[in-house]
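Example record

One chain of 371 residues, shown exactly as stored in the release files.
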Amino acid sequence: MKKSILALSISVIVLGGGAAALLGRPSAAAPKAAAVPSITVNLVAPQTATFARTIAATGTVSARDELVVGSDATGVRLVQVLVDVGSSVQKGQLLARGDDAQLLAQLAQQNAVIKQAQAELTQAQANLERAERLKDSGVYSFETVQTRRTSAAAAIAKLDLAVAQRRELEIKIAHTRVVAPAAGVISRKLATVGAVVQQGSELFRLIKDGELEWRAELPSHSLERIGAGALARILLDSGERIDAQVRLVAPTIDAATRNGQVYVSLPLGIALKAGGHARGEILINNAAALALPESAVLARDGYSFVYTVGADRIAHLTRVDTGARRQGLVEVNGLPADARVVGSGAGFVKDGDLVRLAPGTAHAANQGGQS
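Predicted structure tokens for this chain:
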């Protein structure tokens, strides 16, 4: 009896498992479920755009012309310093003044000497005139007339010497006044009140007309591609870009670094200081290339990718090479001109996804209908 019950139980289990397998197996005639698009995207096609070909460079900001301002006075003590670093000055403006009291006293004395010499000359010329007028009458001997001629000539020479000495004093007095040789900005000040000025000593440095330039360093093979008048763009730390122009390219190359300098004139009033470091780029030429919106290009692991979509609406991750950027467009290489690329929402797409095309998207008419 027990054996019969056990056999019956095993039969029930086997029959139940087979029935379950038959019920769980899909019918060969049942239709396969359709794939569902994962996301709606719009497509864009590469467009032709013009990009600037540039050479990146770094360099130092320097004064185009920095003038050394000194004095030719010797042993004169400064009594006034009228400007400081950063002061804007005009040509001929007084920067500092030395003590000229002693020189002015000597000038007054020299003026008196000149007046005395003028009086002596007047007297000598009157005596000579009288002698010349009466020389034929026998009143004056030939020797007397000759002596008076010599006296008149000596009086003229004495007056000329006195005038020359006065001029020398005036120059010395002028040297006690330090003036700007040109308009510009004071970049350095060594003059202090009370200091004794020596001939040729430096008192100030002046950036002529406040003009600065960017001296970019480039290797020799890059210098050959740049000429005077080329456009340049300097990048500030704030992210602002300053447009400038190449003034000249250095005719020599440093023997140690094998680099040469490109002198770029900077506009007035920029937020750069002489002695600072700046980076930028110099335009070589313009070239046409295929471009895509920046939103269509993804960066992963140091490389650039886009999603291309074929006629089957399957998104394929495609690596591209990028170049210059301009006004929201980025230069791309490695795509055919008729490629269809996911323009927006690319960050949510995965490789191999079936996508739905947004109404009115590019090339939608060639997709054979939309889901």
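Notes: Residues 101-134 form the longest helix (34 residues).
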